[in-house]
Structures are given as C-alpha cells and as structure tokens.
Amino acid sequence: MLSTPTGGRTAFFGKYAQVSHPPSPRLLQALADLLGPKGFSVDADAMAPWLTDWRGKYHGQAAAMLSPVSTDEVAEIVRLCAAEGAAIVPQGGNSGMVGGATPDASGHQLLLSLRRMNRIRSIDAAARTAVAEAGVVLENFHHAALDVGLRFPLTLGGKGSATIGGLVSTNAGGTQVLRHGTMRALVAGIEAVLPEGSIFDGLAPLKKDNRGYDLRHLLCGAEGTLGIVTAACLHLIPANAARQTAWVGLKSPEAALALLRKLDDGVGDALEGFEIVPKSSLDAVLRHIPQTRAPLANPAPWNALIELAGDDEGALAVPLEATLAAALDAGLIDDVALAKNERESEDFWKLRDSISEAERAEGPALQHDVSVPVDLMPRFIADNPARLAAEFPGVRTTSFGHLGDGNIHHHVQPPAGVDGQAWLAQHGAALSRAVYSHVIELGGSISAEHGIGQMKRDILAELDSPARLHALRAVKAGLDPAGLFNPGKLIG
Amino acid sequence: MLSTPTGGRTAFFGKYAQVSHPPSPRLLQALADLLGPKGFSVDADAMAPWLTDWRGKYHGQAAAMLSPVSTDEVAEIVRLCAAEGAAIVPQGGNSGMVGGATPDASGHQLLLSLRRMNRIRSIDAAARTAVAEAGVVLENFHHAALDVGLRFPLTLGGKGSATIGGLVSTNAGGTQVLRHGTMRALVAGIEAVLPEGSIFDGLAPLKKDNRGYDLRHLLCGAEGTLGIVTAACLHLIPANAARQTAWVGLKSPEAALALLRKLDDGVGDALEGFEIVPKSSLDAVLRHIPQTRAPLANPAPWNALIELAGDDEGALAVPLEATLAAALDAGLIDDVALAKNERESEDFWKLRDSISEAERAEGPALQHDVSVPVDLMPRFIADNPARLAAEFPGVRTTSFGHLGDGNIHHHVQPPAGVDGQAWLAQHGAALSRAVYSHVIELGGSISAEHGIGQMKRDILAELDSPARLHALRAVKAGLDPAGLFNPGKLIG
C-alpha cells in the first residue's frame, strides 16, 4: 500500500493546512549545518530502512532524514521547518503497527528520527522515577531500572526496538496493562517540542497539578501530530521477586469474565495478566509451533491464562489456589494447571504469544485490535461471528487476548476453499467496517492499543462520532494550524 | 473583589474571542420556552445565592439562570447561545475555591446550573462503575455506592454541596489522592456538550482506547472552558472494612519524607493518607479548637498523620507497627501514637482538619495551594520562609498538608504588630508572586488542587512558561474559537 502524495497543493482538512511542497535547498542546507554529517542524511541507502514500516505494509519517501541529539536541536529543526511550512514526520524505533511513522510518497516530508536522543538522564531510586530521552530503547530502559532494583512495568514484543518517545506517542499497551495501565499511566512528566518551535518542559513529576488542560495526557497518544516528545519522566515500581501462572479450561468468555471478577476479589492487585484463548487458537498453536503441548488433559472450549506478580510466592499461591478451587467447586471452570516453576510459566506464555504466528500459518486473515467495555466483551465475542457470517457466509472468526482490559484481537479468516488473498482484497474493507461498526455500537474503540496512524485514518473519519471528530480536528487546528507535524496521520 | 466587565466590546486573547454583549430578548425567550419555569429564571432573589462564590470573594451578575434537566437540553441551550455568541458560565455546587463558577459583573453572561441533572443513571456493582449526572452531589454518590457495598474513594470538605460535574471539571483532589489519585484517575468515561452544541458521548468505560487525543483527560480539569460535562462514568472500589491511624512526632519534613518511603515499602498500597503538620499549626489547633488534645506527650517540631485502609485490621496493623518500630529504632521518628479505635482516629483527623479554622483565628494570612515534586517538598518548606523573610521581614509561614502528594498548603501571615489586613492589601500580591516564583523554580504548580478560575488567571498568564501558555491558548482557540464557555476563567 502506497501513501498518496497530495501533489504539491495545499488541501484543507478541517481548519488546519495539509502541506505538501518540497523543502527549499536553503532549508536543507540550514538543517545540514545545524545537525552535522551524523545528524543529516539524504543518502537513499541510509534512509531506506526507515521509510518502510516493519511489517512492510507502508512505504514512503523523505527529502532528508534528521537525527538530532538534543531537545534544543529538535526545537531548532521545528523553527526552521515552520518558517517555510515544511512537514515533519517523527519516528522512534519504527516498530508501530499502523504506519504512523512512515512518511508519505511525495518525498517532500522530513523524517525526524529521535533515535540518537538515547540518554537516560536520571534515575531516582527513592522517588521511583527516571527521565529517559525519546530514543531510549524499551529493553535498555528495563535493564537500567533493574540495575537499581526497580521495574518499568510495560513490555511488548517490540521491546528491542520500540523507543520511549514512540511508546509515549502511541500510548502503548502490552500484557501488563491490567495492573499497571497503558503508557499514559506510567508517564509522570513529559518534554516536547510544539509546532511553533517552543519547548514544553513538563518533566517535573507532579502528583497534583491543576493549571488547566493536561498537556501530558494530550501529548500521550497523539502520534506526533501535536508535539514531538523529546523525553519523559516515567514511574518505576519495585522489581517483583515472585510470580504465579495458571492455565484454566472453561466453557465460555462469560465464564472467563466471572472468573476474572472472582480473582479481583480473591487476589486483588496481584493480578497482572488475564488472557483468553479459544480452543481453535490453542489447536493452531499446537499444530504449527514446535515444542508446545496442551497444559490440560481434556481440551476446553476456552482457556484463560492467569498471571500474578508480587514479593512472595506463598502470598500469591495461597489466594490464587483458594480462588481457583472455589471456582472449580462452583462449576465456573473445568480444569486448572498451575505452573510449578519458571519454565512452566514460560511454556504457558509461549502458547499465548505464539497465537499470531500460528494463525498466520493457517492462512491469511484480517486482524482487528479493538476494545469494548470489559462487561460487553463476551457479548461481542458471541454475537460478532453470526453478524459477519450473515453478511459474509463462511468466514471464521477467532478472538483472543486481553479480556481483563476489554481489548481483544479479533481475526477473521476467509471462507474455506476460496483464494484467501483474492477474497480479502475484494471483501476485506467491508468486513473490517462490519467489525468496527459492531464495536462502535457497543461503545467501543476501533483502536485499542495500536493507534490510528495512516492505517485507520479513513475508517476513523468515516465511523467515529461527529462530535468526537470535531473535537479531534479542533485540537489539531489549535495546536498545529499549519499542519506541519505528521500530516496524513490520525486525523491529518 | 469584583470581576470587571469587558464593556460590550470584543477583546481578543490569543486567537479566541472574549465576548460580552447582552443576550437578545429573542434568545432569552427561546431559552425560557425550552426550559420552562423550573429551568429558567431571571428572578434576582432566586439567582442571588449562585452569583457569589461560597467564600464570598467573587460576586457576579447573570442575564438569566438556566437549569436544564437533560443532556439534550444542555446541547440545545448551547446551540441557541452559540448562534448569537452568548457566553455561558457552567456551575455545579458552587463550592469551588477560585471563583471558577461565578459569572462576571456585566450581567451579560448566562449562568448554566447543572444541579437539576442529579440522576445516578446506573451502578454496575460487578464492573465497579457508576454513571452519574453532573448535578449529583458527592455525598449522595458516596451513599449510593455504599448501598451496593462499594466506595467512591474521593472526598473533601464540601462533599455536601460539591457535584460530580464540578469535581470532574476541576479535577478535584482531597485526602485520599495518595492512594486513589485525583478525580481524573477515577473518571472512566465522560459525556459533555461541546462549544458548537454537539454531544460528546464518551461514557463507555474503555480501559484501552487509542483513537487519538484523549478527550476525557482534556475535559477533566478544564473548568468548563472547553465543554460542559453533563455526566461521568466513575470507578468504584470495594468498601473498606478496616483502617489504622497513627500520629507520629518527628524532627523535619526530610524525616517525614524518609518515613513515607519506608511506609511505601512496608505497607504498600494500603497507605491512603500521609499528612504533615508543623508544631505551630498543632499548637494553634489546641489553642482555638474546643475538645482537642495533643496526641503525643512530648511535642515534636513536626507531626505526620498516617492512615491505612484495607479489608482486615490485623493485616494493616502488623506491617504498620513493624515499620514504625523500625523507624523509632533508627531515630527517624521521635514518638508514635496509634489510634486504638474509630474515635481516636477521628480525633487525630480533627486535628488535621481544623488547621484552617485555627489559623483563621490567629489572624489574616495569605493561603497558597501549591505542589512541587514530592522529593523537593522538604527543600521548599525549609527554604521558602527565608526567601520570603528577606523580601518581607517578619512574615511567618506555615506549611501543612499532603506531603505524599507533593501538595502543601502554604500560609503566610503578616509581621507581628502590623495591621494585618492593611499589610496584606499592600504586600499580598508581591508576596504571593514570590511564593509562586519559588514553586515554579522547583518545577512545581501554582495550583495543586483548586484550579485557576478567575483567582489565579492573571498570575498564571504572568508566570507560566510561554510554551505552556501558548499550548493552553491554542487548545482553547481550537475548541471554543468564539470564547463562549466560561469566559474570563483559566486562560479566558
């Protein structure tokens, strides 16, 4: 899929401009002078890896790649670009899921890489906070926290490349959201360069601050369209000494939700993960992924993977086992396997983490990252397949993931026997629209954790409520009236 | 202090209009027709209580008081007013601290009272959420939650009049913020009418939602300048069965902070309150407030009031006593009194809650509600008196309050022997500016929990960073370009 350039004209979306003209030679020279040879590149080979998203779905061009090393350099870049209305596409680890960091195909946009801003400016073990620059890679940040006996409780598959700035700008999620929240819950302070070139210094970790609109929350999840996040002050927590993992067989998502409520009461804050996996997904994993085995002797229609974390193994195991025993007695669950050691915990998580890979081996499918209120999740999972089947006979749906967050990965496969790719090319857009419409009916979100980027920009504009779209556009128009920051993304 | 009308002209602050002209007879008639006799009033006596803030510092006039009973009526009011650019001042329980709900003196503004929208639309005990309309009084909401075995963990002195809409719009705090956060942490969803008259329905409690800018967080704390909050979906928690309260004597705010860290480690999430009280404030309470007595035999320079809450008294008492015993052994604290029963807990809290009243009895003082990063709080408390004394010889400062939140109530009394009121009239503004400048140097906030309203509007514009002010004005300009919502407040 190629982004479409806007062809040199200035189109208006809402009240902000959609710029597209090549940067002048004078601007490029000024940027080269500012950033030096390590910070400025127009070399096609050097830029190439950063002009395609990691899944290879989006391809773009850039007039130059800018790699500043300081917030002051970022601010100066923005001021220079703002002076002639040149568009800037910020990028961190380039591991996003929705093409949010890929420039368009015009070759007019400037790619602003934050990766060289990779210092951890400070760690305060007593206050349990750390200030990290935008380009710090998540895994490195994990290690830095562990070095002082602390943990940064957000992780995801791309931790080896995802950066703090990108994680903040996409309000990243992961498998520990149930307990610790998404990125915005972990951001104590933020530093960003605004579209007119000023530096917003909101790094001080204030627990209470009622000076008007919360810019920290506004910039978190804004996908670089309102400001370029240059650093964040992040909350850390004590490193856990113990965990307990259980694999449970049960009859339905309703039963899983009821179990989740029992765990809320029985183990409280120790509950860190609650994932559901249907039999079909587990079967696919067992079929396609080497060295996997079923945790339960008797397969169940649905499975729940439960993880508790805390200081003390006994303090976790006792209430967990009591809650699960009561659930067994009450007929709420069919069977339980408790991980006896770290290796068995890892084996359980491998089953969950391999679902996407196994599903790919089963053939092409449309993937949807959606959320609804937690209570409505069983209804969505039960009702959606029938709705889709009525309109698209023979499609097969699979739902798995973060039930505790109301966030499900909802995959739809073409009917058996057809050419899958061709069928999806013909029906995919309408099918996704049907999934998203159902989500919206239930008050849900068409993007639970991946964001909007360029992938969901048009469907957001089509399906979101007029009031919400109006407000998003109004905020963008207010803060970036010239449309310089990440045009073509989100609502650009 | 009288608000100044802008005298019929349209002044521009930033890029949004500052309107002031009387509403036309046609508009008033349309509003009267829409709302009926219970919802529309121009009666001076009926309006009078709502045209002065509860502390009697701000007085205004209104062209009419509008009291809708539904979100649809609010939306229709806004559309009618927007059509001719009439200004609207939203108001809940009228218990704010900064004049944010008091109209100006022009008599041109329409007072929009949300108090008749007082339904609790639903309580979901399993999901631990409830949807309350803007006009629901906090205390009534507490009772409704307790009726289903749950608790809404935010409370404050004005709970008998403060409303949900006002609490959301001011991002209210209180004494349980340490554990449960300010209002924004408890808001799962929001419904609001936007300045162009559309209804933003964001009530669904989504744990994950990455569809761009977070409007929930944007509206929370916006003081009615961006949208009129009509309802909120709020998180509830299990009602606690037990609490433990301790009064501790110690040498300094540094020691208090060190003790707070020990408690973080020792009792974890059970810690719900951590307030500090200097000897001078305790002495004032014992002097002026009947039926109070010192909790400790030997007075200490500083005191900490500690509260733990949880399911089980023993599970609270054991780690609390162990942590305090270790702190005594280490010389971190001088003395401890543990409340032996509910009455002693209440007695301890009465000492804390009576400080403002006792300080008033000591004579006039300038009060500042400020925050700095928790770690810097001891430094601020230690350094600020000397800074003030250098510029204003003889002034006496008292700092008390929510150390655990980095939020201190910082009171400054005139020098002994002068006419206090006259001295404050002459020096008060400069003195407050000196306090706020110090706060800002430390990265802090000139309003920790009370908001900006009209009281701090000018000092915010004077002292806040240009980048932040620019962003606040840009957001306002984007969402309310005509300046209809609560003009003259925050950054209006």
Highlighted features:
homodimer, 492 residues, alpha+beta, Uridine Diphospho-n-acetylenolpyruvylglucosamine Reductase, domain 2, Uridine Diphospho-n-acetylenolpyruvylglucosamine Reductase, domain 3, Alpha-Beta Plaits, 4 domains, four-stranded mixed β-sheet, 17 helices, 21% strand
Write up what this structure looks like:
The structure is a homodimer of 492-residue chains. Chain A has 492 residues and is of the alpha+beta class. Chain A folds into four domains: 11-116 and 469-479, Uridine Diphospho-n-acetylenolpyruvylglucosamine Reductase, domain 2; 120-238, Uridine Diphospho-n-acetylenolpyruvylglucosamine Reductase, domain 3 (2-Layer Sandwich), CATH 3.30.465.10; 242-355, Alpha-Beta Plaits, CATH 3.30.70; 363-450, 2-Layer Sandwich (Alpha-Beta Plaits), CATH 3.30.70.2740. Chain A is 37% helix and 21% strand. Chain A contains 17 helices and 20 strands. Chain A has helices spanning 25-39, 44-47, 71-84, 138-147, 164-169, 177-180, 183-186, 215-219, 253-267, 279-288, 313-329, 342-353, 355-361, 377-391, 420-441, 457-463, 466-479; strands spanning 11-13, 16-18, 40-41, 64-66, 88-91, 110-113, 120-124, 129-133, 150-151, 187-193, 199-202, 228-235, 237-238, 242-250, 271-278, 302-310, 335-338, 366-371, 396-402, 407-413. In chain A, the strands form six sheets. Chain A has a five-stranded antiparallel beta sheet. In chain A, strands 3-4-6-5 form a four-stranded mixed beta sheet. In chain A, strands 15-16-14-17 form a four-stranded antiparallel beta sheet, sandwiched between helices. In chain A, α9 packs across α11 and α10 (279-288) crosses α13 (355-361). At the A-B interface, β11, α8 and α17 of A face β11, α8 and α17 of B.
